[in-house]
Specification:
The chain has 26 helices and 13 strands. The chain is of the alpha/beta class and about 625 residues long. The strands form two sheets. Strands 1, 2, 3, 4, 5, 6, 7, 8 and 9 form a nine-stranded mixed β-sheet that branches. Strand 11 and strand 12 form a beta hairpin.
Amino acid sequence: MMKKILTVFFLTFVSSLFNLLAKPNILWISAEDIGRHFGCYGDPNAITPNIDELASEGTRFTNAYTTAGVCAPCRSGIITGMYQNSIGTHHMRCNASLPSWLKPFPILLREAGYYCTNNSKTDYQFSKPSVRDIWDQSGSRAHWKNREDGQPFFAVFNYTGCHESGIASEGKYKSVTANLKVNQRQDPQKISTLPPYYPDTPIVREDWKRNYELITAMDSWAGSLINEIKEAGLYEDTIIFFWSDHGVGLPRAKRWLYDSGTHVPLIVRIPGHQVGKVDSQLVSSIDFGPTVLNLAGIDFPKEIQGRAFLGKNLSSPRKYIFGARDRMDERYDIIRAVFDGRFRYIRNFEPLKPYYQFMNTPEKGATMREIRKAEKDSTLSAAGKLFSSEMKPVEELYDLENDPHEINNLAGDPKYLTTVENLKEVMSKWQSSIGDIGLIPEAEIEIQEKQSSSRFEIMNGKKSDPNHIQELVSVATKASEGISALPDLMKASNSQDPVIRYWAMTGFGNIGRKAGTAAEQLAVKAMNDTSPNVRIAAARAVAKFGQLNAALEVLKEELISEHQWGRLAATIVIDEMEEDARPLVNDLKKLLKTRQPNKYILRVANRALNDLLGTNNQVP
């Protein structure tokens, strides 16, 4: 009798496991703006019992990273499995057209019979396919419970409470954490994990405390979602993922490519698989979607840049993690990063810009205000001073094994020359292979996409020349290499490609008067170029050569350009000119009184005027 019972139990288990492997239910629990401040990741201050329990029953990934340090570019990559700087969704707040072959992965799940719901954030940075095309249901009422009986589901639930606004806004913080018990609260003075690049003040510690308490509130919410699955009797039929869309929602983390901005928690529980496992393989956020498809037994296009890291028939593990930073709201700063599991190499394509460019949203935060106060009072720590400098190094290299906060830049150390050169080459090859559209100025993207069916195909279309893309990557890199790159920049200034001419002019401007008379003459000529971005970059260079009036005349005209992102680029150059831009005060005032195609132009113009006139006017 006992043998028969065991046989029936075994057959039932095997049947259940077969059904799971055929079409498992899949639940995504996602959070915003948090790092790995969880007990299961060894954080001594964390109060996260539900996520810790999930980790004890599943696999905890220790090397999961996002492709950017901010939500929308990352989420566009997650939903498509593609790098945002390949498909044109790289700027924070933009709207790209996708290539016809690229389907957001929930569409493939739906085609295979899945019921797909999203509750509720999208932020994909493209309008076609529409949200209705992607999901069976998307919104605050979207839920797997609405499916047909027996239908497998893929359900996403996103927690917005730990967004940076939950730290910055006292009202939101209190609302989100209202139900926390006394023993779930943090004492800010006892928290031991405050990074060394922040001012150690009560105000900063209050923000850091809020980060922890918001995560605890999120953990409770996540526990309720898991309990719903259990109560429905689906726990052993459902694969559960937990992840964050990027790192901590504070300065020098959110928007940045450092560990603090891109290293995220990732936990996956697969019923019947090994429990309490720790997996150190490199995982990119663009791998999430392909992994879901692989676990569901669904093929995905070979062009997809992400890879499955779980399931059958896996490709070779990743050797590198890549990241990209581009326009953040009203400020451009092109930065690329590559991480090999120990060393992170960062390339600053615009090194003359400071780390902390003035941006409306982060400047409102209490920690950012404390940083500004410490800058003014000369009370920054040694680590804090590094990121408050007026310029950035062209290259950064950090040994994460010995320098987890990334404050000791090894790029100039001869001992690490080989590491720098190797990772630099890896980065350049990656940029060329994906067609890094982030190297194309935004106004030029809008011009060129009119001749292409998608932004992706500007760099990856049938007529695209891999050698030309490599040349673009090379010239963009040389633009920040100083006087040694001048011969190559001179040659590039005569290119038929306006983007290459743009980087040549940018390089001239970076070098300044040392570039010499020949470069100056080329820059003066380029102020009449057919491309708005070439004209703007040339005017910037000409101003640095000393021909201020001629440069200002060109920039004045670009303020009323038909190209909205050209207007923004010109306004940024004017703002960066500081006192030299005083002759354009009235033009900036006029700009503020004129309806603009985007709010970012107004923000930069307002900032420039505040600096020039000593005012403190505010714009949305």
